[in-house]
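Narrative of accomplishments. A recurring question from our advisory board has been how the design workflow behaves on a single, concrete structure rather than in aggregate. To address it, we present the structure tokens for one chain from the evaluation set, followed by the sequence designed for it. No filtering or post-editing was applied between the two.
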């Protein structure tokens, strides 16, 4: 007999609309794990106490979402390579008596992309320069992408490009370079681009009719077009790119795979992604 469940969870604010608990617990049930995932609303001033509580209660790990991805670093012992480069953590993992901060957002995107293509040697056009853009661009550079064009309205894009051409380039395996383009008017994707990524929040529910300022005619059949927006999975960008004959990747793939990586870090079991995706599709359809 064992009435002691393994505990995991998430600290964020607001937390009510975060569907991760449903996705992760569907995986726990599927694999017969007596594990729980608690979705906790934690204000910034309580983050340190929440993390101390998780440690004291012997949690097997936790996620951090907005606004805690940077502040949580002070509560942890070490950082994984990409989390250190990004300066942001969304997944804490106990290892060898220490708490390690990882970032699974970019890894989730990478796993989802790798189902279609290996990004090594590829040329990438990436829209946005926020947390998702940072996570994806760092992970793709570490995975051997050759060129990254950051398209952004303002200063954040330049800062991200500097990070990529500095510390990230030093740790990437191949020849890598990043360039910054100020986004104004309808952007034309260069014909030698392999992968186009929307890492902005354009198209996120409830603003589902919004479109990127992008000349759709510059998308060609040879390109892969990915969107980070998980809700709705079928964004205007995904629809437009499919109509141009591009291969497409929706934001559910990234969300599911960051969850897969987190569960694997905590439990050692690589969970069934299809079960997790089905749960999210059910939620977003409703
Ligand atoms: P941030 O707020 O950090 O960044 C948003 C980015 O979008 C900024 O670069 C911003 O530009 C840009 N942006 C927003 N509106 C516009 C606009 N009208 N025109 C041009 N640029 C615009 O958010 P995150 O990076 O954390 O998240 C971005 C999206 O990614 C969210 O919708 C989120 O849901 C999604 N996401 C998905 C994940 C998944 O697993 N599928 C994981 C994490 C995030 P500027 O810098 O100029 O302000």
């Amino acid at each position: 007999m064992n009435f002691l469940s393994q505990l995991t969870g998430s600290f964020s604010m607001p937390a009510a609309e975060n569907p991760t608990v449903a996705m992760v617990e569907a995986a726990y049930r599927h694999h017969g794990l007596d594990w729980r995932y608690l979705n906790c609303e934690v204000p910034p001033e309580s983050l340190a106490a929440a993390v101390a509580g998780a440690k004291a209660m012997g949690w097997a790990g936790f996620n951090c979402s907005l606004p805690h991805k940077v502040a949580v670093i002070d509560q942890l012992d070490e950082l994984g390579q990409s989390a250190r480069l990004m300066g942001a953590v969304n997944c804490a993992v106990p290892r060898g008596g220490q708490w390690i901060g990882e970032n699974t957002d970019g890894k989730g995107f990478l796993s989802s992309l790798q189902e279609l293509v290996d990004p090594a040697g590829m040329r990438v056009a990436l829209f946005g320069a926020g947390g998702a853009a940072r996570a994806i661009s760092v992970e793709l550079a570490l995975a051997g992408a050759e060129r990254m064009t950051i398209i952004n309205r303002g200063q954040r894009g330049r800062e991200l490009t500097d990070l990529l051409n500095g510390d990230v380039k030093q740790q990437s395996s191949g020849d890598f370079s990043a360039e910054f383009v100020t986004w104004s008017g309808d952007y034309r994707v260069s014909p030698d681009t392999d992968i186009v990524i929307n890492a902005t929040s354009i198209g996120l529910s409830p603003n589902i009719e919004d479109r990127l300022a992008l000349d759709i005619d510059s998308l060609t059949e040879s390109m892969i077009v990915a969107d980070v927006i998980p809700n709705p999975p079928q964004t205007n960008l995904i629809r437009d790119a499919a109509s141009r004959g591009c291969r497409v990747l929706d934001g559910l793939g990234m969300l599911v795979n960051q969850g897969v990586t987190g569960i694997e870090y905590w439990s050692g079991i690589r969970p069934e992604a299809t079960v997790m995706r089905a749960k999210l599709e059910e939620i977003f359809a409703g």
